[in-house]
Amino acid sequence: QVQLVESGGGLVQAGGSLRLSCAASGRTFNMYTVGWFRQAPGKEREFVAAFTWSRRFTYYADSVKGRFTISRDDPKNTGYLQMNSLKPADTAIYYCALTKSGYYDRPTQYDYWGQGTQVTVSS
């Protein structure tokens, strides 16, 4: 069993930055793809970014490409999401998750989820 704890959310003005962290328990973190998703009120959970465990590839949703950067530190069992040039449209609860599936952009393919951290971007 793996437990995930996100941190780093908060309130920021448009154009600002935040760095989210995802700390994982267990010793198999390095064998999972790390994904970040977000969910705004009244909307479905959507893919934000993923960092695969095997080929170390990164993937981003078009809406965040060029502004967000996903990274991971396997010895520390921690994943990160650096968010720059934030927009009010980025306001949501952000979740990290782990999967061994190749379908990195599908939330149903993820095995473990954190509790989420709120990100609010004011205009």
Q: What is the element string, with H for helices and E for strands?
A: EEEEEEEEEEE
Distance from first to last alpha carbon: 40 Å
What is the share of helical residues?
under 10%
Largest sheet: 7 strands, mixed
Number of helices: 0
Global Rg: 13 Å
Molecular shape: globular
What is the number of strand segments? 11
How is this fold's topology laid out?
Layout: E1 4-7, E2 10-13, E3 18-24, E4 33-39, E5 46-51, E6 58-60, E7 68-73, E8 78-83, E9 92-99, E10 112-113, E11 117-122
Parallel strand pairs: 2-11
Antiparallel strand pairs: 1-3, 3-8, 4-5, 4-9, 5-6, 7-8, 9-10, 9-11
Descriptive account of the structure:
Helices cover 0% and strands 48% of the residues. The strands form two sheets. Strands 2, 4, 5, 6, 9, 10 and 11 form a seven-stranded mixed sheet that branches. It has no helices and eleven strands. It starts with a strand and ends with a strand. The protein is mostly beta strands. The mean pLDDT is 96.
Which features would summarize this protein structure in a list?
globular, 123 residues, four-stranded antiparallel sheet, mainly beta
What is shown here, in short?
By secondary structure, the chain is an all-beta fold. The chain is 0% helix and 48% strand. Strand 7 (68-73) and strand 8 (78-83) form a beta hairpin.
